[in-house]
Design a protein that fits this description.
Elements (H helix, E strand, L loop, with lengths): L2 H11 L6 E3 L6 H14 L1 E6 L7 H12 L2 E6 L2 E5 L11
Parallel strand pairs: 1-2
Antiparallel strand pairs: 2-4, 3-4
């Protein structure tokens, strides 16, 4: 992914609300399944790491992107953004 593509995705993610929360259990199979479903439906998702989570946002985005073959877009504080084109109906054109 080029820096211009990443900048475009960051701009699109600016108005998004977090739809995936990682809690005190960390990344569990249910979290991975939900993230996979959300990425397939939306392609670009914003996630939030809760206060009691043993992982930092950077660790969480690295782990999830590795599991889901997604691209990390942005990581600020406790929030991060991931992108993966939909397999069946891609809507965001880079």
């Amino acid at each position: 992914m080029t820096s211009k593509q990443r900048a475009m995705l960051r701009g699109m993610a600016n108005t998004l609300d977090p739809i995936l929360y990682i809690g005190k259990e960390g990344i569990v199979p249910g979290t991975i399944r939900q993230a996979d479903d959300d990425l397939e439906a939306h392609e670009l998702i914003k996630c939030c790491v809760q206060q009691g989570c043993p992982l930092t946002a950077r660790e969480a985005v690295t782990a999830l992107c590795g599991e889901l073959e997604a691209e990390p877009v942005q990581c600020i504080g406790r929030r991060f953004v991931m992108y993966r084109p939909s397999r069946e109906n891609p809507r965001i054109v880079l």
